[in-house]
Design a protein that fits this description.
Structural class: alpha/beta
Number of strands: 14
Number of helices: 8
Strand content: 25-35%
Radius of gyration: 20 Å
Shape: globular
Order of helices and strands: EHEEHEEHEHEHEEEEHEEHHE
Largest sheet: 9 strands, mixed
Length: 332
């Protein structure tokens, strides 16, 4: 088949590599002139190496636990599996090289608008939108007149969009734990990356800058390379046989952390298993993630309620899977 993938992030490039390896003619369109996501915390569980074994060479630090600071309680979560610190842009470049080696054609500097999506839809057998939180492909599917691409009553823009801000402190640190501070709707974080330290926040857009600036000033931290981006949360997949979404474009991130790479790659695996049947992919992906999304939201609500109002009931040490808080029997 002739396939168009919109977006050369790690999810789109993983799809491109695997679809090209199966003999498809794959074209990847990326609006930026270079590959490499800049505003994203490079904290990945060891499951990343199931998808990209070659990424081990990019690891700059290993993380075994997370300290969470509530106003009157501090707890430590021990991760199973452990997490690795990897520069996200370098991971994207690796994924791009692997996709190219597999035969995918990657075209950078290609800003696809609505009219071009019409042409892609006509000229390709399948189109996959992996084009990020503000996905033009998702917008196209939503606003295209005369088509019922989503289930009746669904709200493609029912996604919530917290703001993520990050900056870097030029200080070497190889600590094996990250530290977070709970805010009303999100959290601040500190990630030791080996060569430097990443500080950041995930909060509502109207609150994040003020909270972050006050926090950084209070700790007298000097940051460089300040960046920001919105973080999609929710899951939206179109009811369409020819065009679908994957990764951040579909709003798939972990409700408690905003991280999405392992979930995105797992979603891509479901797509590959069902390809070219996008309707079955939609069904399987929804089944697999909906329960996990609901469980994640419930766990976050309970943790924040206890942390802010009943801190004494929270154990000080917890063992947890950082990708899947709860285990379910449903398999991909």
């Amino acid at each position: 088949m002739k396939i168009a993938i919109i977006g050369a992030g790690v999810c789109g490039l993983y799809l491109a590599k695997n679809l090209a390896q199966k003999g498809n003619e794959v074209f990847v369109f990326e609006k930026k002139k270079t590959i490499g996501k800049q505003c994203c915390s490079g904290l990945f569980s060891a499951r990343l190496f199931d998808f990209f074994p070659e990424a081990r060479q990019l690891e700059t630090n290993q993380i075994g636990s997370c300290i969470i600071n509530f106003p009157k309680r501090t707890i430590r979560i021990k991760f199973r599996p452990r997490f690795s610190v990897i520069d996200h842009a370098q991971l994207d470049l690796l994924a791009g090289a692997l996709a190219t080696q597999a035969g995918a054609n990657i075209r950078t500097g290609q800003n696809i608008d609505f009219s071009e999506l019409d042409e892609l839809s006509a000229g390709y057998d399948r189109v996959i939108g992996a084009d990020g939180a503000l996905s033009p492909t998702r917008n196209y599917l939503t606003f295209k007149k005369g088509r019922t691409l989503f289930k009746k009553g669904s709200d493609p823009f029912g996604l919530s969009f917290p703001l993520g801000i990050q900056g870097f402190e030029q200080k070497r640190d190889n600590s094996d734990f990250v530290e977070t501070w709970a805010t009303k709707n999100g959290f601040l974080w500190r990630i030791p990356r080996g060569k430097d330290v990443e500080w950041g926040i995930m909060e509502k857009p109207d609150l994040a800058p003020k909270i972050f600036n006050e926090f950084i000033a209070r700790k007298n931290i000097k940051l460089t390379e300040l960046r920001c981006a919105i973080i999609p949360q929710g899951l939206v997949l179109p009811k369409n046989e020819k065009i679908t979404l994957c990764g951040d474009a579909s709003g798939l991130t972990k409700p408690w952390s905003g991280g999405g790479v392992i979930w995105n790659l797992t979603q891509a695996g479901i797509l590959l298993k069902n390809f070219p049947d996008f309707l079955q992919y939609r069904k399987d992906a929804t089944r697999f993630f909906n329960l996990r999304i609901m469980a994640g939201k419930a766990a976050k609500f309970c943790a924040y309620t206890a942390g802010f109002h009943f801190p004494w009931i929270i154990p000080q040490n917890i063992n947890l899977d950082g990708d899947y808080l709860l285990k379910f029997n449903r398999k991909i």
